């Protein structure tokens, strides 16, 4: 499992998981799951186009995913964002289909781009992956406060002079970079699951953003590591295990959150009643003002 | 091409006598009408993600059916109905939560698709299955498919017709509908079922790309032009059918200028839909401008706020 040909896989998956954990937190916070699916899925068109004209795959992916991010933000000005995203992914996939029809040699590569070939990551791919990962993390660090504010409370952010459209475009740009980084090494399916599963689970366990980001990264790392190990042992595709573990983590998170809620409600309700039983004179005030 | 002169210079010879073209025109029209009807509600309810996700989720069912040797469409329908039920069960009301629920179901299903497609590739030692299940092609349909898809399409549209009024009310205002005693969850579930049937039907015949394109594109065009939902549905269906037929024609003709290797149908249809989308944007913008001018020129303008 830790043979020399596996080292690249472990390294690539670890880098991708760290970035996905951080960016995924904002993806879930902003409700941008559709964009997180559309950009990696549609970007294969860029790879196919790059193959046609003999350019570098990463350049093709980068150009197409950034163009897709721009299109989602641009169409989103006059349409709802889910409609804008749907139209964008449709156009990207249609271009992919057009490029694929121009050559008969590329089709098998599509499987790799969709479902990843993390076990076949070459050392030459690791360099660009690391550089783009660093750019993503730096971008999130710079955008951290305005992005957080505009995601949680768009009105307050706007009142403070943060343009929501600029934030939207900036975040989609980061998603496009994540796409460019992750699709050649882990595939579009895997990066999508990693962007939303671990961070959705993390949010169920804490309300504090910094802790949630840390948990999200931790869950993402655990997901890919377990997936690689199990995939290596069973010889089944990694994408299956990442999808299954992500869904499992989300379910556990939801159950935990629901349990916390009922426990909290029961405790609050009981406490409330106890106080009122002790001080009947307060009962009227308590029903009058919900503050108590 | 002088042989085409009897029709018109638009149509390359053989367009009207080719069997695959006939099937493509019929299948495309059925898919467009059903998708247009369901799609108007998809856009109003803001569930484009679910609409697109179901076309991908069905891939898992399709590849599973391929593995056991069953017909792909039954796998699609079975998986999509189950997925729609799960999405409804997770059922978070806030759009962001709903988005996430759709994403989780999509992620898990794509994982299953990876597993089944991998097994397919091993068992049949070809990657052709992947591309076929993922993209489909309107020109390579078996002619018996029209019966199955008509049944699915009629079932889906019938559900929408039955649910029409409560669905419209709960789509426009969830709270108002709930206050009026509309069983909003039930109506939402029924709508998701209609969506699942419509998407399975279109994804299996015309592919995942066109399924989403015909679901969202014509509906988005129609809702920019019409204010009444019934009219919007008619416009959406008409735009969808026109886009399908025009796209099929362009793809067929393209074999001439593209040197034998024609453009894919999906690309041509999507291109036509985008032309409509941008044109509808211009029309609706012109209309708001005109209305604004009319309001301003009225002798007694109501309030300065309205003019602004």
Write up this protein:
The complex is a heterodimer of chains A (292) and B (308). Chain A is mainly α and 292 residues long. Chain A has a single domain (4-288), classed as ABC transporter involved in vitamin B12 uptake, BtuC (Orthogonal Bundle), CATH 1.10.3470.10. Chain A has 13 helices and no strands. Chain A has helices spanning 4-30, 33-42, 44-53, 57-75, 81-101, 107-115, 123-152, 154-159, 164-186, 188-205, 209-234, 238-278, 283-288. In chain A, helix 1 runs antiparallel to helix 9, helix 2 packs antiparallel against helix 4 and helix 3 (44-53) packs across helix 4. The radius of gyration of chain A is 22 Å and the shape is globular. In chain B, 80% of the residues lie in helices and 0% in strands. Chain B is built from eleven helices and no strands. Mean pLDDT of chain B is 81; it is low at 1-7 and 301-308. At the A-B interface, helix 2, helix 5, helix 6, helix 10 and helix 12 of A face helix 2, helix 4, helix 5, helix 8 and helix 10 of B.
Q: Roughly how many Å apart are the termini of chain A?
A: 59 Å
β-strand amount of chain A: under 5%
Secondary-structure element pattern of chain A, one letter each: HHHHHHHHHHHHH
Broad structural category of chain B: mainly alpha
Count of folded domains of chain B: 1
How far is the first residue's CA from the last residue's CA of chain B? 56 Å
Q: Would you identify the CATH H-level superfamily of chain A?
A: ABC transporter involved in vitamin B12 uptake, BtuC
**Total number of beta strands of chain A:** 0
Radius of gyration of chain B: 21 Å
Q: What is the assigned CATH homologous superfamily of chain B?
A: ABC transporter involved in vitamin B12 uptake, BtuC
**What is the CATH-assigned architecture of chain B?**
Orthogonal Bundle
CATH architecture level-2 label of chain A: Orthogonal Bundle
Mean pLDDT of chain B: 81
Question: Over all CA atoms, what is the radius of gyration of chain A?
Answer: 22 Å
Number of helices of chain B: 11
How many strands in all of chain B? 0
């Amino acid at each position: 499992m830790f043979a020399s040909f596996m080292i690249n896989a472990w390294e690539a998956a670890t880098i991708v998981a760290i970035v996905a954990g951080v960016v995924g937190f904002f993806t879930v916070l902003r409700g941008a799951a559709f964009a997180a699916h559309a950009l990696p899925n549609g970007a294969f068109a860029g790879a196919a186009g790059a193959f046609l004209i003999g350019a570098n795959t990463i350049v093709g992916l980068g150009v197409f995913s950034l163009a897709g991010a721009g299109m989602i933000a641009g169409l989103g000005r006059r349409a709802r964002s889910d409609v804008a995203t749907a139209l964008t992914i449709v156009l990207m996939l249609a271009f992919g289909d057009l490029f694929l029809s121009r050559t008969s040699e590329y089709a098998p590569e599509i499987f790799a781009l969709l479902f990843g070939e993390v076990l076949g990551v070459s050392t030459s791919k690791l360099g660009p992956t690391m550089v783009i990962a660093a750019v993503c993390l730096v971008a999130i660090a710079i955008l951290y406060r305005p992005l957080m504010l505009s995601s949680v409370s768009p009105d307050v952010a706007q009142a403070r002079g943060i343009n929501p459209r600029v934030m939207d475009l900036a975040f989609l740009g980061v998603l496009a970079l994540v796409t460019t980084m992750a699709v050649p090494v882990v595939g579009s399916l895997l990066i999508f699951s990693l962007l939303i599963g671990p961070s959705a689970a993390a949010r169920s366990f804490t309300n504090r953003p910094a802790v949630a980001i840390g948990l999200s990264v931790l869950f993402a790392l655990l997901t890919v590591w377990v997936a690689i190990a199990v995939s290596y042992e069973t010889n089944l595709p990694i994408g299956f295990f990442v999808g299954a573990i992500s869904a499992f983590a989300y379910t556990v998170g939801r159950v935990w959150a629901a349990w916390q809620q009922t426990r909290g409600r029961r405790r609050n309700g009981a406490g409330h009643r106890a106080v009122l039983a002790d001080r009947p004179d307060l009962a009227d005030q308590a029903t009058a003002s919900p503050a108590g | 091409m002088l042989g085409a002169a009897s029709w018109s210079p638009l149509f390359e010879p053989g367009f009207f006598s080719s069997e695959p073209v006939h099937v493509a025109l019929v299948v495309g029209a059925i898919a467009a009408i059903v998708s247009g009807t369901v799609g108007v509600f998809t856009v109003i309810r803001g569930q484009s993600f679910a609409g697109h996700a179901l076309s991908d989720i069905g891939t898992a069912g399709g590849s599973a059916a391929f593995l056991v040797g069953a017909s792909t469409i039954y796998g699609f329908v079975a998986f999509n109905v189950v997925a729609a039920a799960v999405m409804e069960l997770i059922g978070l009301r806030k759009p962001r939560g709903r988005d996430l629920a759709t994403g989780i179901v999509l992620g898990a299903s794509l994982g299953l698709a990876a597993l089944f497609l991998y097994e397919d590739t091993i068992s049949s030692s070809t990657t052709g299955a992947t591309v076929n299940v993922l993209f489909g092609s309107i020109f390579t349909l078996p002619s018996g498919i029209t019966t199955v898809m008509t049944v699915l399409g009629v079932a889906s549209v019938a559900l929408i017709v039955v649910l029409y009024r409560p669905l419209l009310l709960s789509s426009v205002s969830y709270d108002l509908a709930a206050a009026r005693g509309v069983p909003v969850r039930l109506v939402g579930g029924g709508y998701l079922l209609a969506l699942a049937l419509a998407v399975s039907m279109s994804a299996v015949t015309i592919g995942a790309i066109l399924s989403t394109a015909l679901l969202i594109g014509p509906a988005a065009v129609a809702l920019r032009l019409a204010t009444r939902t019934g009219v919007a549905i008619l416009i959406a269906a008409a735009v969808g059918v026109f886009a399908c037929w025009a796209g099929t024609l362009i793809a067929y003709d393209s074999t001439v200028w593209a040197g034998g290797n024609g453009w894919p149908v999906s690309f041509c249809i999507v291109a036509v839909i985008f032309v409509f989308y941008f044109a509808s944007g211009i029309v609706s913008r012109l209309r708001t401008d005109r209305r604004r001018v009319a309001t301003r020129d009225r002798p007694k303008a109501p309030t300065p706020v309205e003019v602004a």
